[in-house]
Amino acid sequence: MAQNSRPRHSMDPNAGAKTAATAVIAGRRPLLQCLSDIDAALSRTLHHHNLFPRPLFLLLELSADFRLFFPLALSIFLSPTLSALLRPFLVPLLLGLLLDLALIGLIKIVFRRPRPVYNKNMSVAVSVDHYSFPSGHSSRVCFVAALFYLTSESIKRAAVADHRLVLWAWLWAAATSVSRVLLGRHYAFDVFVGSCLGVLEGLFAFHYLSF
């Protein structure tokens, strides 16, 4: 009896779906890699063509360091004279800083994007991790600026602030965020995401962490 020479078709009903999914993933990887390469090239160009003095960036870096900023905010909160006046700002500020620290740390652990290879000399603010995405300094300063803007009317009624301080807060946040790329600490996309995250944290702290 002649044997059936026709090829046998796969009996796996999911084979087609698996093949399609593999093709989609394979197509996405080059796109993501291309975007990452553009981000890295742009960041490297900005870093190498920086015309501003490096000590200025190091000063901005230090001013936004959690290990300096949080104790300073806590000491103001514990001050008997300033605490009552700045309470609408200080309570969500302290809680939001802790939230930002935890959230940024979690995202960095998940994505594990290495810092730029030209990132050198972090003697002023020693890095607590080796991951770049997102920028913790950018999220922190934008969080502070956003929260200060949202609470500025309450603080102004206490006669301890005016709108010019809000402007200075945003200028400080913008300068610090840009300095992260120019200093070589982060890629541009890290700073963009960190800044957006900081603004969202400011909104969240203003609406849900004010006591």
UniProtKB/TrEMBL annotation:
GO molecular function list: sphingosine-1-phosphate phosphatase activity
Pfam families, A to Z: PAP2 (PF01569)
Protein name: Uncharacterized protein
Organism: Punica granatum
